Amino acid sequence: xxxxxxxxxxxxxxxxxxxxxxxxxxxxxxxxxxxxxxxxxxxxxxxxxxxxxxxxxxxxxxxxxxxxxxxxxxxxxxxxxxxxxxxxxxxxxxxxxxxxxxxxxxxxxxxxxxxxxxxx
Length: 120
Description:
Layout: E1 2-7, E2 28-34, E3 37-45, H1 47-60, E4 65-67, E5 78-83, E6 86-90, H2 104-119
Antiparallel strand pairs: 1-2, 2-3, 4-5, 5-6
């Protein structure tokens, strides 16, 4: 199981910004939880920039995902790497090596839940 969570989100938007600098105007405490364990944690995460990248990946419908943030040199910051129709998640900031594989549908559902918590 995978969850993407923001904590103490200060504001909700009807839609995610699509351009810089608005994409990085707001940072939120962010976690990725895999099987009940925190895989990734960042207290000042550019959540709109991440969601914008995620939405572009969802539109493509295929392939791996690499989130490259202008806020860090440690890129790609979050990746979903496709291996035989399953995805693994990795990050230079990961707290442990994740061996769990996910379907694209599992990732998309979890990401949609994240977006709903932000956009209301």
